[in-house]
Amino acid sequence: MIWQQLQSLAGSYPLALRGLGMTVVLSLISLVLGTLIGFGLGILRTGGNRLISGVIGAWVDLIRGTPFLVQIFLIFFILPELGIELDAFSAGIIALTNLAACFICEIVVAGIRSVPTGQVEAALASGLSRWQRMRQVVLPQAMRIVLPPLVGQYVLLIKDSSVVSAIGLTDLTRVGWLVVQRVPNGLLVFFLIGLGYFIVCYPLILLARRLEQRIGAAHGEVQI
Amino acid sequence: MTNPSKGRTGMIEFRGVNKWFGPLNVLKDITLSVEPSEVVVVCGPSGSGKSTLIRCINGLETIRDGDLVVDGQRLGDPATNMMRLRTEIGFVFQSFNLYPHKTALENVTLAPIHVRKIPRAEAEKAGRELLAKVGLADKVNAYPAQLSGGQQQRVAIARCLGMRPKIMLFDEPTSALDPEMISEVLDVMVAVAEEGMTMMVVTHEMGFARKVAQRMVFMDAGAIVESGTPEEFFSHPKTDRSRAFLSKILRH
Q1: How far apart are CA B203 and CA B211, in angstroms?
Q2: How far apart are alpha carbons A192 and A175 in whole angstroms?
Q3: What percentage of chain A carries pLDDT values higher than 70?
Q4: Taking 90 as the threshold, does the pLDDT of residue B217 lie above it?
């Protein structure tokens, strides 16, 4: 019987590949956008404008404090009520990008705050502008703190992308739900689905670990 | 040296300056004028406000009332471009504050390239010369973590000189150093002073003060208690507080 199931599973190979492709594309786009926006938000959050900083802080707290499934439902089912029609893919990208940006914002803020005040004062004293201080002095040093948790966050976000299956996107998780209807062996099917995620995430886990070791060993001569 | 169009103002002019940290009056009615090329050494017990005093000059601290005029520009005046004024003022920190991710040369050339917009090749040539001048020609490509405290502080001084400032401020530049490294930093500072730089130096290095200072300023509890030539100050301190302070630091 298991042999029949495996054969049947082998037939679902193209579907699984498409699902994996969807998961990878969705994650990649959201992580790139989320990283850019997250860095922007993090820099603004530490920028000294209390209103901007407060608004960003409240938004980040709101997103961190609510389930991703609820967020994605709000974007996909509630926004159309307000006249904003989104297809499932766009809704998924928006939800995941927003989530990524909020988590990455927090990581970037922690990194920026870890740079000693003396560094900013030295940059200030030599007449560097705000952006020059950020670009030349603060961010390169913050990156040493930011990089390992950032890559770790990518792993979490790739796994969180499975939630988009709830709005009908055929990602890896939804492929699992489709296949299990034909091949009634949930353990086997979702073991393989899990393996798919693991194959995508494991290199990132290794990368995060290497970065952490490298930074632990560095004495200021590492340029990131 | 004074620019006649600016009247008889000094390079640095404090007039009735007050500053508070919360309820604490950390600078009390400071009035002080530093002439171009003058070297003023500020001393006093810890917490007397001497670091705060010089940090006000380049706007690392803001004052609450009174006037502070630096190089003819009034601080806090909307017409004063603080960023531009800072390029004329070098500041040497107690803890060096070199950029740890940049080499000695990059530390020196960063502001000249990005703020003064000097072409990289030219800035690097000048940077190498400055590092040679402070005795670190062989450490051009070293990172701060590979340098001793004394070497780091000399790079920090070269970093300031790279901007060709009109004023140099030193905030306890030798306090974080091992004793055997103090003189290498002081030698560089003496050389800078002898080139005619306007300097304000917070330090307890009385040997340095005797050698180059035109004036000693003694502070206590946020106020300038005494000010005069090093000669007067060391041999005939006028107040009990300065006598008590001198007896403590000169005993060793």
Answers
A1: 13
A2: 11
A3: 96
A4: yes
What mean pLDDT is reported for chain A?
90
CB contact under 8 A, A126 and B100: no
In chain A, what residues touch B171 (CB-CB under 8 Å)? none
- pLDDT, residue B252, reads 56
Percent of chain A with pLDDT over 90: 70
Contact A124 B60 (CB under 8 A): yes
Sequence-distant (6+) residues with CB within 8 A of A73 are A166, A167
Span A23-39, pLDDT tens digits: 999 999 999 999 999 99
> By the CB < 8 Å criterion, does A125 face chain B?
yes
Tell me the average pLDDT across B175-198. Answer: 94
The pLDDT of residue A217: 59
d(CA B1, CA A212) in angstroms, rounded, equals: 56
Does B164 reach chain A within 8 Å, measured CB to CB? no
B165 touching A, CB under 8 A?
Answer: no
Neighbours of A198 (CB within 10 A): 11
Q: Give residue A218's pLDDT.
A: 52
- Do B60 and A136 count as a contact with CB atoms less than 8 A apart? no
> Is A118 at the interface with chain B, CB within 8 A?
yes
CB atoms B60 and A121 under 8 Å: yes
Nearest chain B alpha carbon to A138: B99
Domains and CATH numbers, chain A: 2-216 (1.10.3720.10)
Strand partners, B154: none
Closest CA in chain A for residue B92: A122
Q: Point out the residue among A121, A128, A132 whose CB comes nearest to the CB of B97.
A: A121
pLDDT in tens, B141-181: 999 999 999 999 999 999 999 999 999 999 999 999 999 99
Alpha helix positions (H), chain B: 50-57, 82-86, 104-114, 120-133, 149-161, 179-194, 206-212, 230-235, 240-250
Cβ–Cβ contacts within 10 Å for residue B84, how many? 11
- Any B CB within 8 A of A221 CB: yes
- At A224, the pLDDT band (50, 70, 90 cuts) reads very low
Residue of B101, B103, B110, B146 to mutate when probing chain A, most A C-beta within 10 A: B101
Cα(first)–Cα(last) distance of chain A, in Å? Answer: 54
CB contact (8 A) between residue A128 and residue B98? no
